[in-house]
Amino acid sequence: TVTRLTPEDRDLIAGTASADGRHWALTIGTTERPGDLYRLDAESGTLTLLWAPNEEIFSGVLLGSVEEFWYPSFDGTKIQAWLVKPPDFDPGKKYPLVLEIHGGPHTAYGEGFFHEFHHLAGAGYLVLYTNPRGSTTYGDEFANCIQYRFPGDDARDLLAGVDAVLARGFADPARLGVTGGSGGGLLTNWLVTQTERFAAAVTQRCVADWASFYYNADFAMFTPFWFRKPPFVDPAEYLERSPIAFADRITTPLMIIHSEDDLRTPIAQGEAMFRALKQQKKPVVMVRFPGESHELSRSGVPSRRVENQRHIRAWFDRWLMGKPAPEYGV
Q1: Which residues contact 310 (CB under 8 A, 6 or more apart)?
Q2: Which of these, 86, 104, 87, 103, lies nearest to 95 by C-alpha position?
Q3: Nearest by Cα to 206 from 132, 99, 287
Q4: For the chain, percent helix, then strand, then coil, each to nearest 5?
Q5: Residue 168's CB: how many other CB atoms inside 10 A?
Q6: Closest CA to 270 of 199, 182, 200
Q7: How far is Cα 209 from Cα 186, in angstroms, rounded to an integer?
Q8: Among the residues of 72-220, which ranges form H helices?
Q9: What residues are labeled active site?
Q10: What residues contact residue 131 under an 8 Å CB cut-off, 6+ apart?
């Protein structure tokens, strides 16, 4: 018998138990707060807040609300999603919408606090994040169905999520943005080669060319999990799922953010997208972070993490809000 001891709408981050297992010290967060320290009595299920280290900061910050919802994808499959609304949200107005895509691809969003999303919502954006096919926590079939099809139906799930929000009437279809990192960077690249509906995109620590990734990344386990054969045996399979092969289709203004010491998705992946669009004289900029790795946005030097968010915000402000951005020459 399994007994749930903490609420479903909480993010259980870490914990330790007393010797008899009756008392626990837990770090628990929510969509609107990072982890606070709690004491749990396992017998009664009582949670007692011990320390909220960020409460002074949050007392002076107005956060938007986070709504969880489910939507049907193109084939009726139900997809879990969350929508962050601006603090002064008015359903009678039209807001720009930014789609945020997680990496992995076998990871998942949950009830955690995402400062990046609240940062954008505080600037007047709707922020949508979803768990498309390939995400974990929904069973083996849901996660593994993208094998040999990544990107594929997961990208269609993401677009269906955008449609679900647009159907509510308060998101502006002319002001759509998309961003993601790692596997989410790959999907960002892929989406802008498949549709012209996004007015701006930011691809972070991305994959653009699968064959080059095979030969250069420190991650060598994706064959045979994502591809049946190596690229020197079946180059066509790698080419048909590489966004760089379709760079001539891209019309969306693209910002590329990459770290120079990234070994997981080497910086040449981002450079490929930059050079392809620059050669075509399409709107593109590349932001390079020296001394940072694949973990820039999560465990990078704090000042660079702030700078990373500043660039993302400025790019979307330029193309979705119409604000000047002379530093990018656009």
Answers
A1: none
A2: 86
A3: 287
A4: 30, 25, 45
A5: 11
A6: 182
A7: 9
A8: 115-122, 140-144, 153-166, 183-194, 210-216
A9: 182, 294
A10: 79, 80, 81, 102, 108, 109, 137, 138
pLDDT, tens only, 261-274: 999 999 999 999 99
Q: Encoding tokens for residue 35?
A: 């982890």
Q: List the structure tokens of 63.
A: 């956060």
Distances (CA, A) of 208 to 213, 222, 231, 258: 8, 15, 15, 12
Tokens of 308: 């990373």
Q: Are strands 126-130 and 95-101 parallel, antiparallel or unpaired?
A: parallel
> How far apart are the C-alpha atoms of 36 and 48, rounded to whole Å?
11
Residue that is written with structure tokens 């008392």 in the block = 23
On the question of a cis peptide bond just before residue 224, with omega within 30 degrees of 0, the verdict is: yes
Residue type, 266: P
Q: Is the torsion defined by CA of 272, 278, 283, 286 positive or negative?
A: positive
Omega before residue 105 within 30° of 0, cis: yes
Show pLDDT as tens, one digit a residue, over the chain (330 residues). 888 888 889 999 999 999 999 999 999 999 999 999 999 999 888 999 999 999 999 999 999 999 999 999 999 999 999 999 999 999 999 999 999 999 999 999 999 999 999 999 999 999 999 999 999 999 999 999 999 999 999 999 999 999 999 999 999 999 999 999 999 999 999 999 999 999 999 999 999 999 999 999 998 776 678 899 999 999 999 999 999 999 999 999 999 999 999 999 999 999 999 999 999 999 999 999 999 999 999 999 999 999 999 999 999 999 999 999 999 988
Do the Cβ atoms of 89 and 67 come closer than 8 Å? no
> Could you tell me the two tokens for 38?
């709690």
CA distance 135 to 142: 7
